[in-house]
Specification:
Layout lengths: L11 E5 L10 H7 L4 E5 L15 H15 L4 E6 L1 H14 L8 E7 L11 H10 L7 H9 L8 H13 L2 H9 L7 H4 L6 E6 L7 H7 L7 E6 L6 H4 L1 H16 L7 H8 L5 H11 L13 H14 L11 H11 L13 H11 L8 H13 L11 H21 L1 H7 L36
């Protein structure tokens, strides 16, 4: 049975640590998040409790993290990467949005002084100094002391300093050298591409190469929706230096943006993640499931026209999505801006963008009307009797445009995985990427396959 939407499981925050650190670095932040998140730290190979034999290359670290997420089974999750872990997090996010099996449900990413997918900017003299610390074996206490002092804006709390020191001293020499000599220098920009998902990028005001300016330069192009925040006075070890501020920033980000979209029932999300769904279909659904940008700026319409379209959408396609709604108007507007239509238009109408602009200008007062007046206006549009005072379209053209607009809005609503779960549609699960497609066997009305989620729990 599907997970009821009125009592969903907590989302999961997967944390990937920095060079010389471990999963324990997130503990102070996690203690402040536990009411809303399950926080899962993952040791990267050669750090913490993870053996170096798991693989020290960037590719092997990405595979290790993806395997841990699959094994957990999370269906609604954030990915947080600190410094070195930021590069790994970006590549895992790229795989999730590309439709890799078992990785469905990524809602957003948090970078804490994150290393980019491109070569990490690093002063070469400092790199050589750090390499020298491990030339004959693991780091010693003097090297750990110098590393910590060079990466904080102010002295750490004694507990956090002890944790950082312990992690540095048990870091394997092989893992330390592998990152500095190879991993930090590798360019994975092509594999990452542009990741259009909710992103929070935190930087310490006193950090060096990966500080505020560096973050905007190297991670800004990867994340067009990135929200940049600066922790003034902090250095590079953000989870240990400013755990309360990091936790508060993550909660704001989740509540306002990454977690603001409609929830997808757990069993339905697991079906999408399964091998019954092709990678291409899963990638499409993964991107559709992302929360809408609360700061979306229209590209084909004016802000006033988009506001009018939102008012029309609210009355035309009412939503009850468990406390969150899809911004159907913004999604239609994005389609108009991209030039990707449905392949046809009424001969009596101008091209789609022109038709939308003219029609919405003709409905400019719609958002200010009461619900009864709005419904009367929509009824007149359907009947072909509404003659706009402005906008340049006739009553018949407004009727044709509204027929098109209704189709566009409903198409966006039906395309969302939360809507598919609500109406019980799982036709996308007709076979994965293997040579033999599972398909459907029980096709009679009222019958369901044994693997299909039951719909009784959906509101």
């Amino acid at each position: 049975m599907l997970q009821r939407l009125d009592n969903p499981p907590r989302p999961v925050l997967f944390y990937l640590h920095a060079l010389g650190s471990s999963r324990r670095a997130i503990e102070a932040v996690g203690a402040r998040l536990e009411a809303e998140f399950e926080v899962v730290g993952i040791d990267l190979p050669g750090f913490g409790d993870a053996p170096a034999a798991l693989g020290l290359s960037v590719a092997e670290m990405v595979a290790h993290v993806a395997g841990a997420i699959r094994a957990h089974g999370a269906t609604r999750w954030l990915l947080a990467g600190h410094s070195m872990g930021g590069k790994v997090a970006t590549l895992v996010a790229a795989r999730a949005l590309a439709g890799d099996a078992g990785l469905f449900g990524l809602a957003g990413i948090v970078l804490l002084a994150g290393s980019p997918p491109s070569p990490e900017p690093m002063d070469e003299a400092r790199r050589e100094r750090m390499l020298g610390w491990a030339s004959a074996g693991p780091l010693d206490p003097a090297a750990a002391r110098e590393f910590i002092d060079g990466n904080v804006g102010a002295a750490l709390d004694p507990r956090h300093e002890a944790l950082a020191t312990r992690d540095l001293l048990r870091t394997t020499r092989e893992a330390w050298l592998a990152w500095l000599e190879r991993g930090s220098r590798e360019d994975w920009s092509a594999e990452a591409g542009r990741l259009d998902l909710p992103a929070l990028v935190l930087a310490g005001g006193e950090d060096g190469d990966l500080g505020p300016d560096g973050q905007r330069r190297v991670n800004g192009p990867v994340y067009p929706r990135a929200r940049f925040e600066v922790l003034e006075g902090a250095g590079h070890l953000l989870p240990l230096e400013r755990p309360a501020e990091v936790a508060e920033a993550i909660l704001r980000f989740w509540r306002r943006e990454a977690g603001a979209g409609p929830r997808i029932p757990t069993d339905f999300a697991r079906l999408i993640a399964s091998d019954r769904v092709s990678a291409r279909s899963r990638a499409i659904l993964a991107r559709r499931a992302l929360a809408d940008d609360p700061d979306y700026r229209p590209k084909a319409l004016t802000t006033a026209q988009l506001d009018t379209l939102r008012a029309v959408a609210a009355r035309t396609v009412p939503q009850d999505m468990g406390g969150a709604a899809i911004d159907l108007a913004a999604r239609v507007e994005a389609g108009l801006a991209s030039g990707k239509g449905d392949g046809w238009r009424l001969a009596a109408l101008p091209p789609d963008v022109e038709a939308y602009r003219a029609a919405l200008d003709g409905l400019a007062d719609f958002g200010a009307l009461g619900e009864a007046e709005q419904d009367a206006r929509l009824a007149a549009l359907v009947a072909g009797t509404f003659e706009p005072a402005a906008g340049g379209l006739s009553a018949a053209q407004m009727q044709g445009w509204f027929a098109d607009a209704r189709t566009d809005l409903v198409r966006q609503w039906l395309a969302h995985p939360a809507t598919m779960a609500r109406i019980g549609f799982d036709g996308f699960a007709n076979g994965g990427d293997g040579p033999r497609k599972q398909g459907f066997e029980r096709l009679a009305a009222g019958e369901r396959e044994g693997w299909e989620p039951a719909m009784e729990g959906v509101r």
